[in-house]
Design brief:
The structure holds two protein chains of two kinds. Chain A has eleven helices and five strands. By secondary structure, chain A is α+β, with helices and mostly antiparallel strands. In chain A, strands 1-2-3-5-4 form a five-stranded mixed beta sheet, covered by helices on one side. By secondary structure, chain B is α/β, with parallel strands linked by helices. Chain B has two domains: about 130 residues, Response regulator (Rossmann fold, 3-Layer(aba) Sandwich), CATH 3.40.50.2300; about 70 residues, Orthogonal Bundle (Arc Repressor Mutant, subunit A), CATH 1.10.10.10. Chain B starts with a strand and ends with a helix. Chain B is about 55% helix and about 15% strand. In chain B, strands 2-1-3-4-5-6 form a six-stranded parallel beta sheet, with helices on both faces. At the A-B interface, helix 8 and helix 9 of A face helix 2, helix 3 and helix 4 of B.
């Protein structure tokens, strides 16, 4: 029999809805996962209750990630069943000491909603999954299974998401808060940068130009009476000019390094690597270029990381791996040094984090004592298609 | 000697034309952007080129690319590249474009007219002339295998060779005799396993070995 109703054209991005058998497999998975969910729920409650005596912190360090993993599996299944995208709603924990990480986790409402969800998943949710599975296994109930599995699994997924996914309003509220914070940081950062530039120009090039004009004025006066001294002044003036140009050059590098404009992120990072005292391997896994502001932020972030490697790491070699997974640009800066880097210390890294945060980027540092140190920078962005060679570009 | 000159600032172009012509060069073409530079470099009458890295229309490394392309099309074509800033990366690319006859200097070195003109002449004669700033950046790197065998004095001599100085100039700079410099250079050649060949080529190869380390 041919269907008379035209099915809507499938959305090329989303996979087809799961088959009945797959739905039953999900039910089985939910059934199995309900056991650890209950166990970690109890652990989580015990951990929270004993937090004052610090044992709780250790318990939470295990139970929270485990609960999050189980919840994530249910988010994935619910997303497939309902055919909607479900983002991972946790607040990012990227930086800082364990205490700070713990505070972020405890302040995240999703942590507590996970626990509430665990109650549901190990009771009523468990029952729904069990019924779906039994209806298939008991054979006589096969028709009930055939017609009932879809609505039952959809209902269960909807309840799961009621606990596990944040609503649009909540999402927007969170977004506004993040944007407000990063904007304030960015404004502070730019103001500080402008002050630094002003100081560099004032103490550097500007001061030298004043000296230059004085030397030339003096030489002008002396030409008639003491040409030899005047000549010396002119030669001094030339040295001062060179110094002023040198100052301007370093200011320009600090604003936007010319090689970044010429060659993009990959070329500029290669140039950075060449200027390092220790060997730095660059793995340029990028095809195309991100937008100029992202490129600049990532460049300065990598530069700061490499500076830190040179200053603190006592490393023999370092490496930079650039990649893009279709949604995020990732730069990993690693070294084989002594480790123990503390990202909370040092204004440079703080500046890097703020600058990246303006693009929703993150910085994660892994630096166990004894090394190696890995700094992972991630920024969501698109890449433009690779640039054609300049000589073939239209004038 | 007939030169191609590429520089986009009209004032600087006029200044450099005057500077080079008063020192016995003939400016065959003085161009201001990448496409006309590429065109001018095809002129078989040109003996060498002085090229600014940053040129219109893209205002990026147009000049550098044109210079490298010219050296690929005409192996050994002498090019002196000048720029507001120097990059170790670009120095490598220039050196990789063929053996010798290449220079890379900061634009403000032009103010020392005698030295700049001498640099252009040396490049045209097949030597390698690198800006002291590039040399310093390379010196700051940790040394690797074959160069470890050089004594600090030999490294100093090699760095001065990279700046394009002749034996007499190196001797004057280090306040030693010409003979001592010649001895150091022979030691460098031996330690870098550079077989006896034409002296200029060995100099260039020694500099290359050092740059690639």
């Amino acid at each position: 029999m041919t269907t008379t109703i035209q099915a809507p054209p499938p959305d090329p991005g989303s996979p087809p809805p799961p088959s009945r058998l797959r739905l039953t497999a999900y039910a089985l998975a939910q059934l199995v996962l309900a056991v650890p969910a209950l166990a970690f729920l109890i652990l989580g409650v015990v951990g929270a209750a004993t937090l004052v005596v610090w044992v709780g912190a250790a318990i939470l360090a295990v139970s929270v990630p485990a609960t999050r993993w189980i919840a994530d599996q249910h988010r994935l299944m619910a997303a497939r069943v309902l055919g909607i995208p479900v983002p991972r709603p946790y607040r990012p924990v990227t930086l800082g000491r364990p205490v700070e990480a713990l505070l972020v986790v405890l302040r995240d409402p999703m942590t507590w909603r996970d626990l509430a969800w665990s109650v549901w998943a190990s009771t009523f949710g468990f029952a729904v999954a069990l019924i779906c599975l039994l209806e298939l296994l008991l054979v006589v109930t096969f028709p009930i299974w055939w017609f009932g599995i879809r609505p039952k699994m959809r209902a269960r997924s909807a309840v799961d998401l009621w606990f596990l996914a944040i609503s649009r309003t909540e999402h927007l509220e969170q977004r506004v808060q993040v944007l407000t914070e990063t904007r304030a940081d960015l404004v502070d950062h730019s103001a500080a940068e402008l002050r630094r530039l002003e100081r560099d120009l004032h103490d550097g090039a500007q001061a030298r130009l004043v000296a230059l004009s004085m030397s030339l004025g003096l030489a002008d006066q002396l030409f008639a009476e003491d040409p030899e001294r005047a000549r010396r002044l002119v030669s001094d003036a030339r040295a001062t000019t060179s110094a002023a140009i040198g100052d301007l050059r370093s200011v320009v590098r600090g604003i936007h390094p010319p090689v970044l404009a010429d060659r993009g992120l990959v070329g500029a990072v290669q140039a950075l690597a060449l200027d390092m005292a220790l060997p730095v391997r660059v793995d340029p896994g990028l095809v195309g270029r991100p937008s100029a502001p992202v490129e600049s932020a990532v460049y300065f972030a990598v530069a700061e990381c490499l500076t830190n490697v040179a200053k603190h790491a006592r490393a023999e070699r370092a490496w930079v791996v650039l990649s893009h997974d279709g949604a995020r640009l990732r730069a990993v800066v690693g070294d084989d040094g002594s480790g123990g880097a503390d990202p909370a210390r040092g204004s440079g890294m703080l500046g890097v984090r703020r600058r990246l945060a303006a693009f929703d980027g993150t910085m994660a540092v892994s630096s166990p004592p004894g090394g190696p140190t890995l700094v992972t920078l991630e920024v969501p962005c698109d890449l433009s298609s690779p640039r054609t060679t300049p000589s073939s570009a239209p004038a | 000697m007939r030169l191609v000159l590429a520089e986009d600032h009209a004032l600087l172009r006029a200044g450099m034309t005057q500077l080079l012509e008063s020192n016995g060069f003939t400016i065959l073409h003085a161009v201001e952007d990448g496409p006309t530079l590429t065109e001018a470099l095809r002129d078989p009458a040109a003996d060498a080129a002085v090229v600014d890295v940053r040129l219109p229309p893209t205002q990026t490394d147009e000049g550098l690319r044109a210079a490298i392309a010219a050296r690929v099309a005409r192996p050994g074509f002498p090019v002196m590249v000048i720029s507001q800033y120097v990059e170790h990366l670009y120095a490598r690319e220039l050196l990789a474009s063929g053996e010798g006859a290449v220079g890379y200097l900061l634009k403000d070195r032009v103010s020392d007219v005698a030295e700049f003109v001498d640099g252009v002449r040396r490049v045209a004669a097949g030597a390698t002339v690198l800006d002291p700033e590039v040399v310093a950046s390379i010196m700051a790197r940790r040394h690797t295998q074959p160069l470890d065998r050089l004594t600090p004095r030999e490294r100093e001599v090699l760095a001065l060779m990279a700046e394009g100085r002749g034996n007499a100039a190196i001797a004057a700079h280090l306040v030693v005799t010409d003979k001592a410099v010649a001895k150091h250079i022979n030691n460098i050649f031996a330690k870098l396993d550079l077989a006896a060949a034409e002296d200029d080529h060995r100099r260039v190869r020694a500099v290359l070995a050092w740059l690639r380390a």
